[in-house]
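thought: fold this chain, then report.
action: predict
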Amino acid sequence: MKRETNNKRNWIVLNALFLVLAVVIAINLYVTGGAPAKSPEAAALPAEASAIPAEAQENAPSAAETPTLPEATPEPEATPEPEAEAKTGTQDFSMRFVGDLMCCDYQMADALQADGTYDFTKHFAQIKNELQGADVLLGNFEACMYSGAPLNGTIVGFNAPLDYAKALKECNFDVLFTSNNHAMDFLVPGAFETTQKLRDTGFVALGTNLTKEDVGSVYIRDVRGVPVAILAYTARTNKYKLELDGEDASWVMNYYSAERVAADVKTARELGAKVIVMYLHEGTEKDTEPDRRQLAAANESFAAGVDAVIMSHTHSLQKMEKRMVTVDGVEKPVFVAYSLGNFMSSAIHSESLNNIILNLDFTYDWDQDRLTSIDASYVLTYTYNYYNDQKIMSFSIVPLEQALADFSMVDSRTRYKQDRFQSAYDKIMKRIGVDAAEDVFTFHPDSVHTPAPTAEQTPVAGSSPTP
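observation:
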């Protein structure tokens, strides 16, 4: 019994010793974080079992050569892109407009050269200087240039040679409108070809859509740093059944409606336009006062947010108005010219010969973020004719005030007398309004107008295509 008791006691002591040893080992691992030392049995393993082959030992990197993973490099903080410098102060810019640029039979007969080409530059020679100096020069191109039909300059269908567009380019026109009643004289093919030829010649041609994607797009031009949207519409065309590949193609032309203008103004503002200028071909031919459609279109366009409305189609000069209107609770200046009449034409009725060059000076205030002023000024012009040495009727546009001051600039072969020029002056002054008298002057720019660089002519995304 005593021996069993001793054995039991020894067994308890032995277990206690093993337990203490286990605790010591655990504490050592916890403190050092290392692995326990090899047991004597492991140390006594044969050398062959633990040795690294000689070839592997030769190729193995030394402790100093052992590659280590690079420390994680923190990602650099994204550098914010510099914000565009906010514009401050005010910015002035100018836009100059003329009315209808016709190309009639008499004009073509006078321009025809011996080699079969046409020289229209002489028709504009005496007025060319007065067209220079503005930031943008605009006019209504009321003709087609369609290779699928003979040249023609009558109401049947106006079809001009490319030389006519080239003459306008020499005058430094920047923007030509193709939204007018004669734009579809040769249907969709004629409209497409005319627009493309104008763009190839270097103009921004507005009013005709070459693709469905163009519909509803807006042309925005950078004018001295101010984004200006230029819209173009017509109330009607002479040919109204428009088809392309057997389907309706009325989308080719920008037809006016108050809803269309409101939608385009909204698009223009979303694209960043600060000023919106609109051209509209509307009115009753030969009328000297705007009709109800013209009056309504001006009011509708101003309510939609348009800043300046320029019209033509009547072939006669009509009045102009500068107003203050309130749009979205903000009062602002607006301007309307109900018809600029013809700028160049061989029509000889007096209303077609008395015209102007309209200059609009805009001031945009960056601090207030709004247009603060529109100032109008004018050059009175008169188109007279005479028979040249070949007994062909020839034409020239003259600055009217200069002609009255020095009548020797008028070709002596004309049958017109100075009193006819004076009568034209009086009619124009009455038409544009007595209050405009103090703003009438002749432009004599110190520097020649240079068209904006191509980059500035390129519209922002969603805008109409340019040359």
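thought: worth noting. The longest strand covers residues 370-387.
final: tokens above.
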